[in-house]
Amino acid sequence: MARLEGKVALVTGSGRGIGRAIALKLASEGARVVVNDLDADPANKVVEEIRAMGGAAVACAGNVTAPDFAERFIKTAVDSYQGLDIIINNAGYTWDNVIQKMSDEQWQAILDVHLTAPFRILRAAQPVIRAYAKAESAAGKAVYRKVVNISSVAGLSGNAGQVNYSAAKAGIVGLTKTLAKEWGRMNVNVNCVAFGFISTRLTEATADGSASVKIEGREIKVGVNPELLKMVEQMIPLGRAGTPDEAAGAVYQLCTPESDYISGQTIVCGGGIAF
Question: What is the CATH number of the domain that holds 39?
Fold first, then answer.
């Protein structure tokens, strides 16, 4: 039996990488998924993948940092599936530099995508969740909803060259703990997964440092020097980087009924990495 049958799940940044793996995993367990990506094409491709395997999905393309995105995202779920059960705040990227060379633009862009966007999405979701919870309580039913925010080991222990990213990922842990307290009365489990080193297009080995992605008109360098990658993997007890599917598995666990009494927690998915 599918563990998430009938649930409605929203996943930001789910057109590629870890987000795509999360969307596919939740869909494989019966969830109806609202897929988001900065670009429409990747989002639509994931929707097609989900539908091809017999699942249900719709796309809500756009930048999570746009002022009107949060309301549009929530509305897509309610209009399409008349429900709102699972929210995964996954969208993000890195834009690194040491503090003395980091511009205000770099600092703010990373805080916006990793911290302000989740805040706005959850703020927009609150009235909807409250209405559902009130109706369920009046009917004598207890329905547990799930929020899983994505952090990083950088947010727990810091990482040189990532003062913006580390600060944002530490902030999402604080947001998680606070909402677990505020939303417990509505039977919402709010938890966090802090990823270690996961293999994606943003962390692939690049010897010449020329790899980049375009975000909001900016060319952002991505990839990791092969020697640095090898050194990082040697520090991981399991001896390798994680896969997007493994990352998705950690998130999925916090969406199942088995997590109904787990809230306000941060789980590290990092192959045993110490911090």
Answer: 3.40.50.720
